[in-house]
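User: Quick sanity check before I run a bigger batch. Here is a single chain. Can you write out its predicted 3D structure?
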Amino acid sequence: MVTDVRVPQNTSRSLLPYLQQANIQYTILISDLQKAIENQIGLRSYRNRRSLSGYNYEVYHSLEEIQGWMHHLNKTHSDLVHMFSVGTSYEGRPLFVLKALQTYQTDPAMRKMLTQLYFYIMPVFNVDGYHFSWTNDRFWRKTRSKNTRFPCHGVDANRNWKVKWCDEGASFHPCDDTYCGPFPESEPEVKAVAHFLRKHRKQIKAYLSFHAYAQMLLYPYSYKYATIPNFSCVESAAYNAVNALQSAYGIRYRYGPASSTLYVSSGSSMDWAYKNGIPYAFAFELRDTGHFGFLLPETLIKPTCTETMLAVKNITLHLLKKCH
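Assistant: Done. Predicted structure follows.
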């Protein structure tokens, strides 16, 4: 078992001798996390801001910039995309989705996919948490809902879905990072997306969720060690997808059931999608494997997106073949 641990500066001096005494092997991946964060923020503040028409896909953007780009795309390329909201967040921010239309002409593979399937793309699910990660806490992962009994904010949005809710791999304590919430779909973000998926579940063939980091392509189940009924089709899609991904830059992804490939967790959106009749449900854990972790440099955005898109295309073409 390998795990990544973030250690406060004032405890690192006592931790290292303990690890050595216990004969636990370790590697220091980032020696000064705060400095690494400040360096990334520094690059962000000095970079040249371009107009929305020249949106830079190789830098990280704030929520306002992302949603501004979505509005601009919807306005200037209404023949390609249609933007709509599925609801609002706890703090009142809209939950925007882009629907890709069937007018794409350049790439033959994309044209084939878009003429036979609709794509719904939600660039940011946890809009409040993402905004907070830019203004207050770079490593914030939960939503921003308030708790009436504890001073801690937020729920792990990927533990809040109504599938084995708050079982193994989730916490009942509001101050934990994996807090499952007071009840399933307590978070307005989860409730809104779940409602949209329920409404269209008979037409939805695949659900893809993107996270970081670990370089893995996961499929159900997360909450238990068991084989899904359509394992052969899903496993084949995953195998071909990671091979397609690797063909770009040689980056290897592990793939398999989330419970045995990563860890057991309950209440995930992937398991919920699968349990609600969506036959192909995947979770990508993008680059890297821990060297940069959640501080992946902007120079790696483009290659990560390029290789991931190859995997997504491969999964989509697999859907069109109608595996049995």
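The longest helix spans residues 301-321.

User: Great, the batch can go ahead then.
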